[in-house]
Amino acid sequence: SEAFPVPVLGGVVDGINITVQPDTISGLNRVRGVVTSAGLPVQGALLYAVANATGEALSASLSGIDGSYELPGLMPGTYRVESVKLNYQPGPSPSFTLAYAGLLPTTVTINITLQEVSTDSRHENPLPSGFVLQHNFPNPFNPTTRIQFSIPGSGFVRVVVRDILGREVKTLAASVLSAGLHAVAWDGVGASSGVYFYSVEFGGKKLTRRMMLLK
Predict the structure, then answer these.
(1) Which residues contact 179 (CB under 8 A, 6 or more apart)?
(2) For the whole model, what pTM was predicted?
(3) What's the pLDDT score for residue 144?
């Protein structure tokens, strides 16, 4: 569904209705598992199966009160499970292959472990020093996200977005910047849903992180 900004000055905003259109499920394979952190189940984590070949998200689910999730409707192929949860570091993204066993679909179990980010650690360094690339926000996003980074000195900086195949999608910055904290935004309105990578190049070094456009 289309997204639009809503200014919030405080309190509760009512009347934000969301209309979604279900995708046609074309496969019979599925992946399921449990999301945990420090040995305890994590509820409300967003899990999605991403096709390794295209970077497209083909199935998504929220973990339940017991941490369990299930991603159905997958065709034969190689996938990985991506995870997103506010105040948690993303878990590892293991790859797995789904194939029909004769005429029967298969189910793969992939358990995900997240690491909680404490409130103290999120506020220890509000203004990072050195060459640092932060996680984009929001993530997943539709269609705009903000990318923040810092550089230790003045110099030429290049910020690039690439798709899952490494092809350059958009150059967000290519200029000389002063030392300190900087931010750019990417509007993915014309891009397809899937996984993208954003990189910041400075002083002969490059930092890269992953983000998810989910329409």
Answers:
(1) 151, 152, 153, 154
(2) 0.51
(3) 92
